[in-house]
Amino acid sequence: MDDGLVDLNKKKIDLLNQIEKVEEKKQSMETMIKQPEAQKPPSKQDVTIEKKHNIEKKCLELHIAVNKSGWIIRSVILFSEGLFPNGGSFVVHPS
Asked: What is the torsional sign of CA 76, 79, 81, 83?
């Protein structure tokens, strides 16, 4: 078999796989749109994030709240870049 033909067949298969993935994503989006509002995940407007400086404790407090009925925060992953966009960190030792 010609190498060019093999390459074209591989490209065809890759494109068909990509189309299938797009179709699956489209279907999942359509399903999510049809869901009742209470079942949809909270939007950025539904989540409140506040950074507060606590001088007495010498720390930075992060307050996170979900303002959507029926939703709770089970866990949070925090990277120092999220609090300190210019890099670095804040450490008090001993406390």
From this structure: positive
Distance in angstroms (rounded) separating the CA atoms of residues 78 and 62? 10
Nearest to 77 by CA among 90, 95, 64, 93: 64
The reply to whether the predicted model has a pTM over 0.90 is: no
Sign of CA dihedral 77, 85, 64, 25: negative
Q: What angle do CA 33, 23, 38 make, to 5 degrees?
A: 15
Residue type at position 60: L
Q: Is the dihedral of CA 95, 90, 79, 72 positive or negative?
A: positive
Give, for all 95 residues of the chain, the pLDDT tens digit. Answer: 577 788 889 999 999 999 999 999 998 888 877 777 767 788 888 999 888 888 898 887 888 899 888 888 888 777 666 666 676 665 554 54
Tell me the residue type at 18: Q
